[in-house]
Amino acid sequence: MSDDTIRLVTIGRILRRRWRLLVVLTVVGALAGYGTSVLFPPRYTASASVLLPGQWEERELLTQAEIATSSAVVDRAADTLRWSGVSGADLRDRVSAKAADGNIVKISGTAETPKRAQQLSDRVAQQFVTFAARIADDSTDSETDGGPEVLRQQVEEANRRITDLANAADPGQTVESVQVRTLLEKLRTSLEEAMKKLDEADPASNKAGMVVMGPAARPTGEAPPTRVQLVAAGALLFFLLTVVGHLAAARANRRLRTEPEIAAALGSAVLGTVDVPAERHAPRPHGRGPRARTRRLLGIDTRWDVPAPQSSGDEASRRTRYRRVYARLRDQLPASRRLLVVVPEGDETARRAAGQLAAEAGSDPSPSSSNGGHPLLRVVEVPVSPPMVPDRDTESGALVVLSAGSWTAGELAGIAEACADGGHEVVGAVVAGMVRARPTPSAGPSADDAAPALAGRGQATGGSV
């Protein structure tokens, strides 16, 4: 697997070559989201605000929010609502509370209808205020004997003693008497300020002053996730899963791309690489049955991970590559031999390359009328699973022609074994690559146009065969 799977160009290639499949699966995901919205009925949420006057710390506000959703409050709200089949335990999952800015506790209730959501939030807010006031009254009653009132009486007694001490001090204007009276006045002022702060921070008055800031507004829209959100989420989820699935499949791809890997799988050397010009309308694989028609309809009958063809030279440069490959084959086999050109079935690029190579073999000048010293080629397409190569007839070797990145090591090893079972020695391999041809001014037929006619299953092509 190459690094192309992590590039943006690879995702663009998926979108361009698998857009039909992506559209179909995105629609399926949208339908799945719609079905989910049908199974889960819509919910509505209303909110009521409770004001807590006075000074409150953040942790105290959080405590009040927890009290608002406690079973003591929610159970009392359920008793006042008297909804059929709905208990306090059921409402606990539908009620939430959070502390907002400005000493406000926001209580939210969720129900099947806007009216019920409004009623639920209002009742819970009312029960929360009632419960908090009850707690404040209980704490005030328990602190009557030894609480702030006793402290106030003690402060008043201390003020009287301070006054007595000030009167009993030396009425003269000595330094000591002035200092004593000054300290006593400071003590009196400190005690008065402390009592004033104590009155302002009285927790009983704070809790008793909680108030509901008006009834909850009736909701006009569904609470998330809405039906539209579920449909969009389903479509997006299926789209992303399809793209990720393609990337994972490409990452797990084990098709061979380099010449050393191909040579090792076949157990023979690679004689060279040839170019095949890409066709404007490439033929699609033919198949019968509903499965094949479905694959053609979704556009998954062809591979998407094949890189775009690169630019190549003109017709003359491409033919030069074929002549050089044939020359290497001829130098490797000096005697006149017939060779079987094996092309994996379904490899259109390799089939066209093999036909062109056979055409070059037929047009190569021969030192004698019987083509002595020049291998004669016969092209056959071989199924990959299971591979089956024709038995040896007059051929004394096999040349494998294939395209890079199309076959795994196991498939190529199977072709090599099938050649050995048929009595053919693999004398080499030729790798074909798809390129984007430059337009040529020549109007005459090229050798590529005749190449498809030279390749056929089990038919002899090239030379005088």
Automatic annotation (TrEMBL):
<feature type="region of interest" description="Disordered">
    <location>
        <begin position="439"/>
        <end position="465"/>
    </location>
</feature>
<feature type="transmembrane region" description="Helical">
    <location>
        <begin position="228"/>
        <end position="249"/>
    </location>
</feature>
<protein>
    <submittedName>
        <fullName>Wzz/FepE/Etk N-terminal domain-containing protein</fullName>
    </submittedName>
</protein>
<dbReference type="InterPro" id="IPR003856">
    <property type="entry name" value="LPS_length_determ_N"/>
</dbReference>
<feature type="transmembrane region" description="Helical">
    <location>
        <begin position="21"/>
        <end position="40"/>
    </location>
</feature>
<keyword id="KW-0472">Membrane</keyword>
<dbReference type="InterPro" id="IPR050445">
    <property type="entry name" value="Bact_polysacc_biosynth/exp"/>
</dbReference>
<comment type="similarity">
    <text>Belongs to the CpsC/CapA family.</text>
</comment>
<feature type="domain" description="Polysaccharide chain length determinant N-terminal">
    <location>
        <begin position="4"/>
        <end position="68"/>
    </location>
</feature>
<feature type="compositionally biased region" description="Low complexity">
    <location>
        <begin position="439"/>
        <end position="456"/>
    </location>
</feature>
<keyword id="KW-0812">Transmembrane</keyword>
<keyword id="KW-1133">Transmembrane helix</keyword>
<dbReference type="Pfam" id="PF02706">
    <property type="entry name" value="Wzz"/>
</dbReference>
<feature type="region of interest" description="Disordered">
    <location>
        <begin position="352"/>
        <end position="376"/>
    </location>
</feature>
<keyword id="KW-1003">Cell membrane</keyword>
